[in-house]
Amino acid sequence: MAETSGYSSTAKSLHWLIVALLTAQFTVAWTMPHIGRNTPVTTLISLHFSFGIIILAVASARLVWRATHAEPAPLDGVPPWQVQSARVIHWLLYILLLVLPILGWINASWRGMPIVLFGLELPKLIGTRAPGWGWTGDVHNLLAYYVMLTLIGLHILAGLYHYFIRRDGVLQRMLPGG
To answer: Which residues of the chain have pLDDT under 70?
Structure first.
């Protein structure tokens, strides 16, 4: 097995915190009521909004960390196309971790739904029913359920491929204690 020089404990912590938050977020999203024209803000909807804002904050911190700390060099023996594919998928995930919560926040603002985090109501990003912004909820759903979940699936499959088939230590670099 190749030598593994892993990610920092901060990078690992932020990665696994985002995993936990996304797991909770998708669980809430699948169980909350569909948000229609006159849907009242329920506890699950409010929780979904809160998780979105927390994900936005943690993803922002992760990106700042990533921009100020170099990632470990690719392991010897990993084909360049796999290294490049991983980079593309990682950056697409980072973009979605920022874009999805912002689109959700815009849509909540457009619907006149308050976003309350730890008792503090956050400002609306646009006015209620502002012309030209009704599409944000549909795009939020499309990106979350199809693009984000597909990329997460590819990310997980790649990690499992490196762990079980290539046995090259790639996955261990992001595991706690690795």
So the answer is: 1-4
